[in-house]
Design a protein that fits this description.
about 350 residues; alpha/beta; Rossmann fold; Dihydrodipicolinate Reductase, domain 2; nine-stranded mixed beta sheet; six-stranded parallel beta sheet; 9 helices; about 35% helix; globular; binds nicotinamide-adenine-dinucleotide; oxidoreductase activity; GFO_IDH_MocA-like_dom
Length: about 350
């Protein structure tokens, strides 16, 4: 039996990616929509084979409690609204799949984790790249030693944000600029590929004084992550440069490049070692359908999802340290959590 989801927020990501992906998912389906625009909701509901009764406004969200076929919600709202709707969903007994970044800072994201734990519902941070075969192949190449001892990584994720009115440029709604929106892919993927947590961060940021888009958030951030064994990662993120996404890992005996690294389709992985140059191919697949499938299966089995809420909190801990370093000009040390291979 597939798991029914209510998709909360019918913005660009929901409409262009998630609703189509759910149709191809084996284990999940969309059973309800939550939106402030009922007409738009009804049009999408009909296209999905649902009825106008399956469309709810934000005010009616609590009525999802009565819907036993809605077992999970997928929160696809501006970042500062994730917490309110995750907690309302948890209180209604629904499992929560929440878009990245999980919240707007560590305390906000931790409140989501705590609320879901108290309510006894599952929580997953929607890190689609951790459900992508090219990213798993990169992780495997690194962790199985195919590149020899890894020394350095670099990653770029930039795009132009040209609408001065968009919520992404409002600090209160977004929690930051390009860092929590697109830079988070570099941060999360470096951690995923290495399977290690950074011990220190060092960062610089730039906010132009004369550009109306950047009155509240930064335009660009450059951040460095230091890992055990002297491994260093250098990452760049910006809202001011044409779309580029890359990840490179350099080891003593080989290297790999993902370019592009973070698109919805067409991630390209190249591995180079002494034996030559390889471009493994994994056919076409939908990252969002894989993400839906994973969460639905974990809801059924009761096992913790691969990218739980804590994974989202960990990125917030590191992003908060990145901003702290950028403000102070100092290296920020993360503290080792006793008994765990985690630095906070
Ligand atoms: P969007 O602006 O296209 O849609 C936002 C939705 O929230 C709309 O339905 C809008 O009506 C609703 N909304 C409610 N209150 C709002 C308010 N005060 N201001 C603006 N919108 C409001 O945004 P999006 O690109 O769909 O992003 C939504 C979430 O998805 C964000 O958390 C974002 O980080 C995440 N996202 C993830 C990916 C990914 O690849 N995983 C890609 C894009 C966006």
């Amino acid at each position: 039996r597939r798991v029914g989801f209510a998709v909360v927020g019918l913005g660009k990501l929901s409409v262009e990616e998630l609703l189509p992906a759910a149709r191809t998912s084996e284990h999940a389906y969309v059973a309800a929509l939550v939106t402030s625009e009922p007409d738009k909701g009804e049009a999408f509901a009909l296209a999905l084979g649902l009825t106008p009764d399956d469309v709810y406004t934000y005010e009616e969200f609590g009525r999802l409690r009565e819907r036993s076929d809605v077992e999970a919600v997928y929160i696809v709202l501006p970042n500062s609204m994730h917490r309110e709707y995750a907690l309302r969903a948890a209180e209604a007994g629904k499992h929560v799949l929440c878009e990245k970044p999980l919240g707007v800072n560590v305390a906000d994201a931790q409140a989501i984790v705590d609320g879901c734990a108290q309510a006894g519902v599952q929580l997953m941070t929607a890190y689609r790249c951790q459900y992508t075969p090219e990213h798993w192949a990169a992780r495997q190449a690194v962790q199985e030693g195919r590149l020899g001892k890894v020394k350095l990584l670099d990653s770029i994720h930039v795009q132009v944000e040209d609408d001065p009115e968009v919520w992404r440029l409002r600090l209160g709604l977004a929690g930051g600029g390009p860092l929590p929106d697109v830079g988070i892919y570099s941060l999360n993927t470096v951690r995923f590929v290495l399977g290690q947590e950074p011990e220190w961060v060092f960062a610089a940021q730039h906010r132009p004084q004369d550009d109306p888009r950047f009155t509240e958030v930064e335009e660009s951030v450059s951040f460095m992550l230091g890992f055990g064994g002297g491994v260093i990662a250098n990452c760049l993120t910006s809202y001011g440069a044409l779309k580029t996404s890359t990840l490179r890992v350099l080891g003593e005996e080989g290297s790999l490049l993902m370019d592009p690294a973070f698109p919805y389709q067409g991630v390209k992985l190249t591995i180079e070692d002494e034996a030559g140059r390889f471009e493994p191919s994994f056919g076409s697949h939908d990252q969002f359908a894989r993400e839906f499938d994973h969460f639905a299966q974990r809801v059924r089995s009761g096992q913790t999802p691969w990218t739980p809420g804590e994974e989202g909190v960990q990125d917030h801990i590191i992003m908060d340290a990145i901003y702290q370093s950028a403000r102070s000009g100092q290296v920020v040390q993360l503290k080792k959590v006793e008994g765990q291979d985690v630095f906070r």
